[in-house]
Amino acid sequence: MSLHKPPTVSKKQVNRAGDTLKSTEPGHKQYDEALEIANQWRLAHVYPINTFQARLRKMVRKFPGSLVAQRLKRMPTIIDKLDRHPNMKLSTMQDIGGIRAVLPNVKDVYKLVKQYESSKRFTHVLKDKKDYITSPKSDGYRGVHLIYRYNNTLARNSIATLYEGLMVEVQIRTKEQHIWATAVETMGTILDQPFKTRGGVKEWNEFFALMSSAIAIVEETSVLEEHKDLRPFQIYQQIATMAQKIRALDLVSGYSYAANIIEEKYSTGFYNLIVLDTKGKTVSITSYAKNDYEKAVADYSRREQSSGEHEDVVLVSAGRLKSLKQAYPNYFLDMRGFLERVAVIIAEVQEVNTKGK
User: Fold this and answer.
1) How far apart are CA 227 and CA 328, in angstroms?
2) For the whole model, what pTM was predicted?
């Protein structure tokens, strides 16, 4: 199979399909037709993100312990984002195709960002830069996002011109920021709460916000605005209090080891189709070679449409199984790293309180 699948639908058709997916219930003919167009548009982003990830892997060699992963945005997530942003058009959604670098520390993050911004041989057009480390999101999310318009003028063949104008999002974050972000996604999946968009149970949102500020203290960056009047130990105390209130340690530890791989058609594939059954707490992985991307995406779309209420489906690439688990711990219900950090904070608070008695 060929490695490229350029857009075969117009932006007008894509936007109309996005509007239909928002306004029409699944099962209708119009919905199915719109879904097919949206899938074609999503599929077109495979080639650009492959180009980006190949370069990114070379760039992060200077940062030992780094991790690179790529993914196509899940269709339910695409539709949900269109619902939450009524003025957004599907053709201009910036993160359908995304790659991510997880680096050891904040200093390395900004070194990599500088490499992107200063490279003369990087011809893609930077359309937007969002520094959520300097100015974290209100929910506590941190990282740097670089939004590029694909424009590979140095390509050795004419294929690259077919993708000109498509958007690719590069996410760069530290290991600590990654552990926090994936823990938010994991608990949101388990509890069926939209924590990622700051919806759901208020106490859990407050807990994650406090943990974000705790990470900022360790990384010597800005705590959230709501915590700026608190000393570090006061933030730790509030974490310990909130953790007890929502039984965070019990819940997180209870789920951290619950997901088992029950169907591992996995080698060292380029693409990996992951299906998480949140009810059965099981994960299945199907691996595909790089030149089998059309089958991978076709299986992805088919599996999405047939997935049950308690299933999450995603198509990603991160190399070996160990790297896959590190890049996407939320699909393995793995919050051990986050649990360790919460436990350390609580132990420190208890030690200080004990000494003070």
Assistant:
1) 29
2) 0.88
